[in-house]
Amino acid sequence: MLAMNRPILRYPDKRLRERAVEIEKIDGRVKELSDEMREALAFVGGLGLAAPQLGEPLRLILIDVDTDSQVLINPELVEADEENEVPYNEGCLSLPGIEAEIWRPPRVLVRGWTLDEKEIELERDGLVARVLLHELDHLDGVLFIDHLGLAKRRMLLKEFERSGRQSERTPSAAPSL
Predict the structure, then answer these.
(1) Of the listed 24, 135, 161, 168, which one is catalytic?
(2) pLDDT (tens digit per residue) in 119-140
């Protein structure tokens, strides 16, 4: 079993609400951070992770859904099929143990950079599109619960606080985005 160097931040950590900054140079620090992210994601069995979830306010995400594993630096949403949004029960590694039905576009086009400094475009649909959107939200300080109405969000946050999961130091073993 892998041991994590640092825990995944939990709500209500204020760093989860900060907008991440662009990475100006893809150097050893960025590559090391991506390795830490991959290790953390493997440890918890999630589908995606954003650098801010490890306390690094950088525009860096990792997705790992089935055979689609990508590290994206400075990713940006180019296009999304917003007219045909579909529901899916989402969870989050920073809010373990709760989930809610979130409506998102079923197809996206995302542009970013790889660790070997190549520009890449990913056109994805289904679960991979959802994971990309979820992780892009993290880069802007947005959590999946922010897509809910106020009453539903309050109810889920009360459930989360009652569970005591916000104070745990190790991630949940349940798969989350």
Answers:
(1) 135
(2) 999 999 999 999 999 999 999 9
Residue with tokens 């809610």: 100
Q: Is residue 135 annotated as part of the catalytic site, yes or no?
A: yes
Which pairs with CB-CB distance under 8 Å and at least 24 residues apart come from 141-145? 141/16, 141/17, 141/18, 141/19, 141/20, 141/52, 143/11, 143/16, 143/92, 143/94, 143/95, 144/90, 144/91, 144/92, 144/95, 144/100, 144/102, 144/177, 145/92, 145/95, 145/98, 145/100
Superfamily holding 14-167: Peptide deformylase (3.90.45.10)
pLDDT tens digits, 85-106: 999 999 999 999 999 999 999 9
What are the extents of the domains in the chain?
Answer: 14-167
pTM of the model: 0.91
